[in-house]
Design goal:
With 196 residues, this protein is α/β, with parallel strands linked by helices. It contains five helices and nine strands; from the N terminus they run H-E-H-E-E-E-E-E-H-E-H-E-H-E. Strand 7, helix 4 and strand 8 form a beta-alpha-beta unit.
């Protein structure tokens, strides 16, 4: 009986492993992470510099912008007002701008515009201005956002890879947050499958 149970467990684990092996986790065209966002992240990110929580204060003193890319987790924006309905609250680092859902691997044209327009507004068009992207620990959304900002020509991009988890472990505090309003493009010009 023990051999049978061991066989069933081994077979089940092998089946689960094969399912994950078959699942594409990176977009083959863009290289963005498109699945299983909450898994260990690499030590570096193309187009950006990995930093630790202790580095944030100095960068902020040097005029860096903090951008939280935590997903809305089932939230949605009101199409008329742009204000978000969130099923649960979120907290982030004081002084941050929350750009919800922009760390996904595939963005709609509306989401791409939301990301690029907010970066242009926050940096006042200065692509050399320092930007710090973060989410939570082991979250690929901030990794994607760094790469996406680099593709838009931003040059001084920092990745707080440990996100709010590392920030609070370091002794930092968090405040209640709301995402920046999201205003979709008019229906005729919207493309639901743009890869930016």
């Amino acid at each position: 009986m023990r051999k049978f149970v061991a066989f069933v467990l081994a077979w089940s684990m092998a089946s689960v492993s094969m399912c994950f092996a078959d699942e594409a986790v990176f977009d083959t065209e863009t290289g963005y992470r498109i699945a299983r966002y909450r898994t260990p992240t690499p030590e570096s990110v193309p187009g950006g510099t990995r930093i630790m929580a202790a580095d944030v204060a100095g960068l902020i003193k040097a005029n860096a912008i903090l951008i939280d890319v935590m997903p809305s987790e089932g939230g949605r924006a009101n199409p008329k007002t742009g204000q978000w309905y969130l099923p649960k609250s979120h907290r982030n680092i004081a002084g941050s701008t929350w750009l919800a859902d922009v760390g996904q691997g595939v963005l709609t044209s509306d989401q791409s515009k939301y990301f690029s327009d907010n970066l242009a507004r926050l940096t006042q068009g200065d692509r050399s201005r320092a930007i710090i992207f973060y989410c939570k620990a082991d979250c690929w959304m901030s990794w994607n956002a760094v790469r996406r900002a680099a593709a838009l020509g931003y040059q001084n991009i920092y990745w707080l890879s440990e996100g709010t988890d590392g920030w609070t472990d370091w002794g930092g505090t968090l405040i209640d947050a709301k995402p920046e309003p999201f205003h979709p493009l008019p229906a005729a010009s919207s493309d639901a499958s743009a890869k930016h």
